Amino acid sequence: MKNANYGASYNYKKKSTFKIKLENFFRAIRQKGRENLTVMFIPHSETKIMNFQISYAALIFAIFIIGSITVGGLYLITERNSMETKNEKISKDLLTVHSYAEGMRIEIDPLRKTANKLKEVTDNFQMVIGNREKLKTTTPGKDEGMGGPEIHEKVLPNKEDSNPQEIELKRLNTKFGFIANRLKGLNTTIEGFKGMLNDMPSIFPVLGSSMGRGYITSHFGWRRDPFTNRLTEHHGVDIVNLIGTPIVATAEGIVKNAQRGGGRGLFVEIEHKF
Question: How many CB atoms lie within 10 A of CB 214?
Fold first, then answer.
C-alpha cells in the first residue's frame, strides 16, 4: 500500500513538472511578444533619423498576414491561368469541330451535284429503255412487208446482234449498270456524311429572342461558384436569355433525363454520338 502511494505521488510530480515547463514556455513567448523591436531609417544626409517601434507579436502577425495574402494571390493567379488555358483549349476544340463540319459540308455539295447529274442520266436511260420496244418495231431487218422476186438472194437473215440500235442499247445498258452501282456507293457515302453531321453538336442551343441568341456568362472549366464563391469545376456552358426563349438540341441524340434538379432547375439531358 505504501509503494502504490509512492507511485501515484511520483506520477503527480511528473505531470506537475511537465505542466510547469509548458507554462514557462508560453510565458516566455508572451514576454518575448511584448518586447519591442526598433526600426530606424537613416538618410545619407543624417539630418533626420526616422524610427518606430513594433512588438515581436505584431511583427509575426504582420508577416503571417502578408505571407497568407502572397500565397493566396499566387494560388489564385495560377488557377486563373489554368482556367484561361482550359478555356482556350475548349475554344480551339470547338473551332476544330466547326471546321470539320464545314469541311464535310463542302465535300458533300459536289457529291450532291454529281448525284443529281447521275440521276438525270439514269432518268434518260430509263426513258431509252422504255422506248426499246418501239425501236425494235421501227428498225429494219425484219421479214414483215418484204417482197420481190430476188429477196432470198439479196437479203440475208438479220440477227438481233447485227442491229446497230440493239448494239447501242446493250452498250448503254452495260454502261448505265456500272453508273448505277457507282451511284449506289455514292449515295451510301452521302448518307454517311449526313448522319455524321446530324449526330455532331454544331449549332447554338438557343433559337433567339428580342435580345438575340443571348450571351455566355460562364464557360466550361474551373470557375468561382456563384453561390458558394468556391473554386469548382463547371461541367457546362451558361447562356443567359429571356424567360420563355425556345431552346433546341445541338444535334440528334437520345434524351436520357428530363426533370427538375437542384441547382439547375428544369433541365433535359441528351446523349450524342459525338
Answer: 19
163 touches 141 (CB < 8 A): yes
Q: CB-based contacts of 167: which residues, under 8 Å, 6+ apart?
A: 161
Specify whether 155 is located in the same domain as 240. no
Helices 164-199 and 56-130 meet at what angle, rounded to 10? 160
Q: Which domain does 142 fall in, by range? A: 74-199
What are the tens digits of pLDDT across the range 26-58?
777 777 767 777 777 777 776 777 777 777 777
In tens, the pLDDT along 184-223 reads: 777 777 777 777 777 777 778 887 766 677 788 888 888 8
* Count of C-beta atoms within a 10 Å radius of residue 176: 19
Give the count of domains, the chain: 2
Q: Are 97 and 251 in contact (CB under 8 A)?
A: no
Tell me: do 155 and 223 sit in the same domain.
no
129 shares its domain with 240? no
DSSP state of 160: G
SS3 260: strand
Based on the domain organization, do 87 and 194 belong to the same domain? yes
Spatial contact of 213 and 226, defined as CB atoms under 8 Å apart: no
Q: How far apart are CA 117 and CA 124, in angstroms?
A: 11
* Residue-level length of the chain: 274
* Average pLDDT, integer, range 128-149: 49
